Amino acid sequence: MADSVGIQQGSPAVGAAGLVPAAPGAAGTEGSGAAGGSARIAAKKAQLRSSPRPKKLEKLGVYSSCKAEGACKCNGWKSQNPPPTPPQTDQQSNTVNLQEPCRSCSHTLGDHVTHLENVSEEEMNRLLGIVLDVEYLYTCVHKEEDADTKQVYFSLFKLLRKSILQMGKPMLEAQESPPFEKPSIEQGVNNFVQYKFSHLPSKERQTIMELAKMFLNQINYWQLETPSQRRQRVPSDDVVGYKVNYTRWLCYCNVPQFCDSLPRYETTQIFGRTLLRSVFTVMRKQLLEQARQEKDKLPPEKRTLILTHFPKFLSMLEEEVYSHSSPIWSQDFLVGATGGQIPVHTVISAPPVARPIYYSTSPMSVDQSTCGSVSPARKPASVLESNPVGEKRKASEPLHHEENKRPRVVGDIPMDLINEVMATISDPATIPETSLLSAHSARDEAARLEERRGVIEFHVIGNSLNQKPNKRILMWLVGLQNVFSHQLPRMPKEYITRLVFDPKHKTLSLIKDGRVIGGICFRMFPSQGFTEIVFCAVTSNEQVKGYGTHLMNHLKEYHIKHEILNFLTYADEYAIGYFKKQGFSKDIKVPKAKYVGYIKDYEGATLMGCELNPSIPYTEFSVIIKKQKEIIKKLIERKQAQIRKVYPGLSCFKDGVRQIPIESIPGIRETGWKPAGKGKELKDPDQLYSTLKTILQHVKNHQNAWPFMEPVKKTEAPGYYQVIRFPMDLKTMSERLKSRYYTTRKLFMADMQRIFTNCREYNAPESEYYKCANILEKFFYTKIKEAGLIEK
């Protein structure tokens, strides 16, 4: 027989967020719960189960309903509805015997246990375990201060009491039963490891598996913040949805750790991406902070794993957690042959630390409603990485097991060669990084490394008139006002204060050691398609460290996520150089009608603009460039190695041969030499114009020329101009011909050939466009030959 009770959806759990698993009612204090709480309960149960049978009956009698004649309705001493304050005498009564009269009815306690006379020892021990869980929850109900949490404990208390009365198994009654989301967190992390690291050697892959197991176990023992705490920290969050997951977590994962009469599930097995998203940012920050604080306690072999590899692992996972297009959360994700599932073992700890590495996570008082946090770091290039990309938005994905159906052509370098070269390049994290003092290091390299290590953070913050003031946000805004006032002495302090605290303005703040050291104040105009940068400064003693560049890169990423691709700012004479380095210019791309009347005007300043490219992950751009340079370097080295090859000399001239074709010289083609197309070069400009005009007209009149008559429209092929960098069409060629651009036949032929090459690069071979390009190309060369411009 199974007993059930309704659990109100959305009631929260106990204790402060993120502490080690605290026993319910222990207020989340570290060390007071966890192993200590469950161990004490287990010891009490073992002691009670070893007692004589009469003692067991006495214990059960005070919780069992009366079976005396006369249809007594007494349910025992312990009421299902506890009084406001716990009666200590009842709670700790050890002098009960079966001959005593029941305090709720006139019958003896023996009448309450007549139904247990023939019950097996195993069943009695099970019921005794429920009794101790009831007493423990009884204490929790009275110690817990959070009203919602108290309600959940009370519901569980009534469920267990009912199970004792009816001798059934406790069963939670809810709209849904576990698992609540698919794929689960555990499966998602398994998919992540397979997706990103299946190509690694076995030793490095084993390191990744260790990190994954460590992460999963941290989630299983993570104490979540209550919905009321979360409401204060993130007012704009979906509190209702969070409360639902929170109640489920409390009932199925947290309380059963200590009340083992309830069925227990691992958090990572019954929850999915939704819960992970709600805890990941705070959890990641607190894990890394705790790791830094305890680094001296770690042995050398674990120090590298936890301090170096774990932050990189979390940064890469963070991108997949928050990305809308990550494949690891698809139920159709296929695990490759080399991928195995990650078993969840006990928490991976680093001896000689006395306890597992739990990281406390008292909730940050960061107002996420007005501060869409852009930090922690984006996915860094590392030994743990297969594809360095930008922040949580997706840049182009690597070619993995779902390869493109056709190879991409990049210039005249075969893709196979590029892939072969990339395989020979050591991962950036396994080789010494470019010295930060080197002339070849990127401006933001030092700042990026500091962010990756958690030394600095970036948060978009702003004041709000509609929400409860957040102390930390207000302190940061005051800090930003001070930085701007000191670094921009010619700007009135009152004006700076007004804009920094203006609810319409936001500021990307740079935080180091808990204090503000820089920021960019801006105002977004989504309807006009641009953002105005108002102030930009870094405190003087933190300059020349790449913070300014990294700040601007984060701001670019933030705006790309919000689909605003233009910056405008008035730069004074001292700031023009900085903005030029960040991609700003005096050539304003935004139409004047869009910004006049919106942007603030400053005397003696220069209006500058910057157009963002949504395909560029700006915070990792220098890393990508560094890798591209490495690829080019390897390609050059390969080419040079081929050129340096010594070929046998020409001996044909000794035999009387007077001349040979150039292409027959050994090694000449390996140098990159190609035979020039032979044909008659028309020196008369008018004659050349007339000939080319005739050929172009024939091509335009061809029945297969229709796809190439006009430039490709973005609405018809949305991603065309991201793939094709140098588009060409017959209309453009006609305009060029009319303007006398084609001074030689080669220029004309190159543009025409580009039309066909672009078409074949963008379209699939089976498409109609691809076939039209092939047919029209043959026709074109036929006409070129007929005109005598190349040999037949």
Automatic annotation (TrEMBL):
InterPro entries: Acyl_CoA_acyltransferase (IPR016181), Bromodomain (IPR001487), Bromodomain-like_sf (IPR036427), Bromodomain_CS (IPR018359), GCN5 (IPR037800), GCN5/PCAF (IPR016376), GNAT_dom (IPR000182), PCAF_N (IPR009464)
Reactions that this protein is recorded to catalyse: L-lysyl-[histone] + acetyl-CoA = N(6)-acetyl-L-lysyl-[histone] + CoA + H(+); L-lysyl-[protein] + acetyl-CoA = N(6)-acetyl-L-lysyl-[protein] + CoA + H(+)
Major enzyme class: transferase
UniProt xrefs under Gene3D superfamilies: 3.40.630.30, Bromodomain-like
Biased composition (Low complexity): 12-27
Any one GO molecular function term: histone H3K9 acetyltransferase activity
One GO term of the biological process aspect: epigenetic regulation of gene expression
Bias-annotated ranges (Polar residues): 1-11
EC number: 2.3.1.48
Domain Bromo residues, every copy: 700-770
This protein's record includes keyword Zinc: no
Active-site residues per Swiss-Prot or TrEMBL entry: 532
SMART domains reported for this sequence: BROMO
Region (Disordered): 1-39, 370-404
Annotated keywords: Acyltransferase, Bromodomain, Cytoplasm, Cytoskeleton, Nucleus, Transcription, Transcription regulation, Transferase
Family statement: Belongs to the acetyltransferase family. GCN5 subfamily.
The protein, known as: Histone acetyltransferase
Organism: Poecilia reticulata (Guppy)
